[in-house]
Design brief:
Blueprint: H1 10-13, H2 29-39, E1 44-45, H3 46-53, H4 57-71, E2 74-81, E3 84-94
Antiparallel strand pairs: 1-3, 2-3
Helix pairs in contact: 2-3
């Protein structure tokens, strides 16, 4: 029995990529999809990030804290709104 290749999640494929912040490189793959979502002016909900990556909520939050904040140096904020908690990268801060 052979394993079939899995195709990337369609939500991540159809994502509009936000322009990268000056002086930074945009990661590729699912991490890049998360960064693109967080760079949007409206930010992203946890549910939208889960749909784009196929990851569970704790994995998305872990990547935000570990890879996006610590390794890439972005300043990520979260705020509670009527639609739920929204996360976004603060422009002009971090990397």
């Amino acid at each position: 029995m052979t394993k079939s290749k899995t195709t990337p999640d369609t939500a991540a494929q159809t994502l509009e990529v936000a322009p990268a912040m000056p002086g930074t490189t945009t990661p590729k793959g699912k991490l890049g999809a998360l960064v693109a979502l967080l760079l949007r002016p409206e930010g992203a909900s946890l549910e939208a990030m889960q749909a784009a990556t196929g990851w569970q909520a704790h994995s998305v939050r872990g990547v935000i804290a570990g890879s996006i904040k610590k390794k890439l140096g972005f300043a990520v904020t979260s705020e509670k709104s009527d639609a739920g908690r929204l996360y976004r990268i603060v422009k002009g801060a971090g990397a």
